[in-house]
Design brief:
The chain has 681 residues and is α/β, with parallel strands linked by helices. It contains 30 helices and 9 strands. The chain starts with 23 loop residues before the first strand and ends in a 5-residue tail after the last helix.
């Protein structure tokens, strides 16, 4: 770890720390929707990788910038509105800045919304770190009639200020030149902090006298005093452990006497920001209506907005699956061809070797990898919506519906995409800032009927109910969606008691997409899925194939069939025999695999599954099977995605356990009610 500067003191910008490693580290911070990705991606290209702050699941993107014979390590920290630890993301960003002490911090602000984004600059200037301010989206501001004077802002702040249009690569060279200027001591760094007034400064000094003289780690004393006055719980807990009971009681009493100081601090910062903005910005004439305002009259309308959202999501849903299907089929054919070649090449080897490689490894891993075109298009579509500024509007419109499920509007997007495939839907939870929302949405997505489940549903309702099949299909779907809503409410209260899904989201200005950023985002997500998910898929697919292949005879005598027979008493509660239970277990590989397994176990030498199935299942048993199938444990790919996104097998186990219990519990209920209604025969 890099040696740290003395607490509360800032070494000269050009000073080199003894035995400090090179390349220099540059931290990239900023609020959501300021275009940090448009800065980070062009600077680092394909050299990026993703890490995690120790003990946290929040991602840090890390990459290398090379230019003018120099290399720098760029760390893209999570988006945050402030440096008060109100969320895990804010805590990670703050702790990284204070504990790792990067050589330079680039604070990216939005030229079209300087008032809000400069608040983070006001807090960052309190830290003993060299700051460069990157004023991004200058083009968007100009389109809105807002003219920013970077030179005036630089003179007022006393730190380098660089205007940028990062989506077009403008200003990035100047940004890195400013960073180099600070590192080399070429810039007269003289930051001007917000002024709090004599009364507040006296209070800060009084709190400082209560702090211990040592043992504060990397935290500057003045910064600690400010955070105590702002009611920062993490800082309070830290100092409670550093002070004896008497000194803490005295400090706590002082803080209680000045509980309104947080308002005074915020007011002072905003007054400071106001002076900056008045000096550095020329605004459009009063009464002028911007493009964003005109579009939002429709996009956020209480009635038109949901219609636009539904149309847009439906179009994306159709487009993603329509465009990806030929490629998915092509890859599927390629996997089958390779599997046939493997079988031919291993014809002389023991039968289990060919089966393991062709059916276990290629069949499992290959099937999931055929989803790559779908994943790529999904990530690209999502990145496009976020980049142009619509994603926040969609979340705003869907918030009322999602709030009833214990979530907020942004969770609607991955849940909706789950109708196509649960795997990209789980990966899509990365758009959610809160870990609580990511976990809860991840646990709900496997309940959303994917395309594989829909195939099973349509086939079985058609075989068992004939002309009434479409009505039964709609009824089952309505039942499942109602279950999703109820489960979301229950899980939110059981797993996250006392946590409220508050929804405060900035609606960014609309702007043209940055195709380079979208492509890099898509490439990194797809590559991440292939590299990190491949091992888990391989292990699970091999395990399932082994259970189906051993001890070496037909599948009816396999360990998988034996497991199905063990579950036969449970299946008897919903009118299912061991073969249907094996079909359920086989659906763990892929949901549509249930139909293939039924065909192997049920159909004889004559007839088809559609004609044979009514002889095996009563309407009541068929309904119960469909309910269990629609809500049963996730497939291999989804389990893999859950492990990948939560960084834990524990949450995957929670998903498996509660879905197994829920599916069979509701299946038994439906079977008994259907029998009472006369559908048992």
């Amino acid at each position: 770890m890099r040696p740290r500067a003395s607490e509360g003191q800032l070494a000269p910008a050009g000073a080199q720390r003894e035995d400090a490693p090179r390349p220099a580290t540059v931290a990239l911070v900023g609020s959501p929707n300021v275009g940090k990705s448009s800065v980070f991606n062009p600077l680092t290209g394909l050299s990026q990788h993703v890490g995690n702050w120790p003990g946290k699941t929040v991602e840090l993107k890390i990459g290398l910038w090379r230019g003018r014979g120099r290399t720098m390590r760029i760390v893209d920290l999570p988006g945050t509105y402030s440096l008060t630890a109100n969320s895990v993301e804010e805590q990670v960003t703050r702790d990284y800045l204070l504990q790792e002490r990067p050589d330079v911090v680039i604070v990216v602000v939005n030229a079209a919304n300087l008032e809000r984004t400069l608040y983070l600059v006001a807090e960052a200037l309190e830290l003993p770190l060299p700051i460069v301010v990157g004023v991004n989206m200058m083009d968007v501001a100009e389109r809105e009639g807002i003219h920013v004077e970077p030179a005036v802002l630089e003179a007022a702040l006393g730190v380098p200020v660089v205007p940028m249009v990062a989506s077009h690569g403008e200003g990035l060279e100047e940004l890195m030149a400013a960073v180099e200027g600070l590192l080399d001591g070429d810039y007269p760094y003289n930051p001007r902090h917000p002024e709090f007034g004599p009364d507040l400064e006296a209070l800060i000094a009084e709190i400082d006298r209560h702090l211990p003289q040592e043992g504060l780690g990397p935290y500057p004393r003045r910064w600690l005093a400010l955070k105590l006055l702002e009611g920062d719980r993490e800082v309070g807990d830290l100092l409670r452990t550093r002070l004896d009971a008497a000194r803490w009681a005295a400090l706590d009493a002082l803080l209680r006497q000045h509980e309104d100081a947080v308002l005074a601090i915020a007011s002072a910062r905003y007054e400071w920001i106001g002076r900056m903005v008045r000096a550095a910005i020329r605004r459009p004439k009063a009464g002028a209506i911007s493009l964003t305002e005109r579009l939002d009259r429709w996009a956020t309308h209480p009635y038109v907005g949901p219609a636009i959202l539904a149309t847009l999501m439906g179009s994306i849903f159709w487009l993603v699956y329509r465009l990806s299907q030929p490629l998915v089929d092509l890859l599927g054919g390629g996997v089958s061809l390779v599997a046939d070649l493997v079988r031919a090449q291993l014809a002389g080897a023991p039968a289990w070797v060919g089966g393991l490689v062709a059916d276990g490894i290629l069949g499992g891993v290959g099937t999931v990898l055929t989803l790559l075109p779908l994943l790529a298009l999904f990530f690209a579509a999502l990145a496009f919506l976020e980049d142009v500024g619509y994603l926040a509007r969609g979340a705003f419109v869907a918030d009322r519906l999602m709030h009833r499920m214990g979530l907020h509007g942004k969770s609607f997007l991955p849940l909706f995409l789950g109708f196509g495939c649960n795997v990209p839907a789980v990966l899509g939870t990365r758009i959610l800032e809160s870990r609580r929302d990511r976990l809860l949405t991840t646990l709900l997505i496997p309940l959303v009927p994917c395309a594989g489940r829909m195939a099973v549903l349509v086939f079985i309702t058609g075989a068992l109910f004939g002309n009434r099949g479409p009505l039964v299909t709609l009824g089952v779907l309505a039942f499942v969606l109602l279950t999703v809503g109820l489960v979301g409410t229950l899980l939110g209260r059981l797993l996250f008691p006392g946590e409220s899904p508050s929804f405060i989201m900035e609606l960014p200005l609309y702007h043209l997409p940055n195709w380079r950023t979208i492509l890099l985002h898509t490439w990194r997500r797809v590559l991440d899925f292939v590299v990190r998910a491949g091992t888990v898929i391989l292990l699970l697919s091999t395990a399932i194939w082994t259970l189906a292949a051993l001890p070496g005879s037909a599948i009816e005598q396999s360990y998988l069939a034996s497991l199905g027979r063990l579950l036969a008493p449970l299946g008897g509660l919903i009118g299912l025999d061991w073969r249907m239970m094996v079909a359920l277990l086989a659906s763990v590989v892929a949901k549509e695999q249930a139909l293939a397994t039924m065909a192997i176990l049920i159909v004889g030498t004559e007839g088809s599954l559609a004609t044979t199935l009514p002889q095996l299942l009563s309407p009541a048993a068929g309904l119960a099977f469909l309910i269990v199938q629609m809500l049963f444990i996730p497939c291999v790919g989804t389990i893999t995605a859950i492990v990948q996104e939560t960084r834990s097998w524990r949450w995957a186990a929670v998903s498996l356990a509660y879905q197994a219990g829920l599916s069979f519990g509701l299946g038994i209920l439906v079977f008994q009610v259907a029998r009472l209604l006369g559908l048992g025969a």
